[in-house]
Amino acid sequence: MTASMHALIAARLGRADEAEKYFRDSYRPFVRGPFVLFSEKRTLDRAVFTTGAGGILQSVIYGFGGVDFDDWDGIAKAPVALPPSWKSLTIRGVQHNGKRYTVAVTKDGRTVTPE
Known about the structure:
The protein is of the alpha+beta class. The protein is built from 3 helices and 7 strands. Helix 1 packs antiparallel against helix 2, helix 1 runs parallel beside helix 3 and helix 2 packs antiparallel against helix 3. The mean pLDDT is about 85.
């Protein structure tokens, strides 16, 4: 799970290349077929490691998507660093204080729109 947190932090610092490397390192060695299960260790394929999978989601939503919450203004917009190999990222159904939002990130920036 460490690599996924490094990906999140690198994305928040605007280091897109570094964030993408950490992101790949956070899941590639741990994915097991045929059902694409996420194991806790590189050499263990008997368990599903949901905490590690959660770390990957956090790196995408809070890192690459730049989603952050502010109790006063709704969704605060943290810096965005889309990985160089990605064209865009859309996160639908982000909920905060009873409202739902769609966050769309491209190379040109990010938009947050109410649903």
